[in-house]
Fold these 2 entries.
Entry 1:
Amino acid sequence: MTLRAYNGTNGEDGDLTDDSRSPGLVIFEVSFLVAIIAVSVSGNLLVLACLVVDRKLRTVSNMFVANLAVADVYITGLLMPFVVTSVIVNEWIFGEPYCKIHGFIQTILYTGSFYTHAVIAVNRFCLIAYPSRYSTVFSRRNSIVILTVLWASCAAYAMPQVIAGRGVDVIYIAEIYNCLFDGSSNLTYLYVTAVLAYGLPTVVIIASYAGIYHTVRQAGRGWPLARR
């Protein structure tokens, strides 16, 4: 079926069937994406394998690392192959229903991955700045609750994309060969996305690592690395 596609070059919606790309460009784009998929999937599977094999690595902190690795495997191993196919044929051939599902799942995984980075940053900050309270705050039970709330929040945030009548459109965007939320369809949702999905975790990450830097600096020569 033919999908409504957005071409950012001319700012118009329409059926994009003209393929003026050179074969060399297509080969380069496909090769680049396949390389990303191979490196990401193999690297993250290696991380997960290490966590499974070595019991000493099964710490609370590494629960969040494993969570991030799983999300990245899903993104690159299960979602990006559809993008690669779209690059090859220069259109979305998987149907409009799956285009919306693809965008929905992608939103959950990308947001979950970004929020996991933020949680890891807070985890590191608590470990360094408040070591006596770390085990209480980041107990195994609390960490499972944090991850559950994290993914439930990401799913709730993405839900308007698949609920009819919410005015949040997911369309195939030809320039990036992917199905994503159309920001022009709902500006409120776009602003919420900018603040909650990207702005908030970015602030948390910056604040956490700034706190780590401040704590280490305050410790001064009490830290082994400061004497080197």
Note: The beta strands are 5-7, 12-14, 170-173, 178-181.
Entry 2:
Amino acid sequence: MYFYKINTKSSANGIFLLFVVFVLYNVKADDVSVVNSALPPTCYTCEGANCLRVTKLNTTTDCTDPLDYCVTIFKGFTVVARGCYAELTPSLRQRCDSDSHPECTKCIGNRCNNKGRADFKCIECNSSYNNKCLTDVIILPGVECPIPTAPNSYCYVRQNTDGTTERGCLVHQREQRECLSNAQCSMCVSDFTEACNTYKITTRITSGVDSLLRNYNVNTIIKISLMFITVLRYD
């Protein structure tokens, strides 16, 4: 944490500086775009069903307050809102009032709210470029997934026709359906642990659905089935 020397003769300036320190300490700085503090940030925005539409994925809004920041609100793993914190409804903002609520991600930067939940990560690699994707997967770090447009997020392992293995995130409905129809593609749910896609696909896999279900108990299978009923409701 950074400490600032505050002029005791100006209580107004002191309060303002303390507020800036609080904001910077409690939100994640964007790695790509740094906000000009004199200008309000630009955030990706959506609400409700629009958050599940790929055509609305890159819609943005300009915040009105230079001290505002971008947020993404989840219900479970489904995005229910994105935008400027100060411009969201109080019922949505309350999830961001906690420092560590898993259903709210905060960031400082233009269009920085383009990631999924911070507690959901997958291994992302291709054995064409990284041999550890085949031999030492367990030592590879999990990465935060892109913003999902599907109601649920999954990790995957796919064996390509050229013999290479690919691992990563599946956050869009079309990609998830393609994996389900591919006998050499397997999806998994992290269940709040990092990087579930560390296993190896074998030649005995008969379908993507079979691959997904073989790795989980009955309760998890029921949960996944209910998830996909929700997936099929959206295009």
Note: Confidence is low (pLDDT under 50) at residues 1-26, 28-34, 204-226, 228-235.
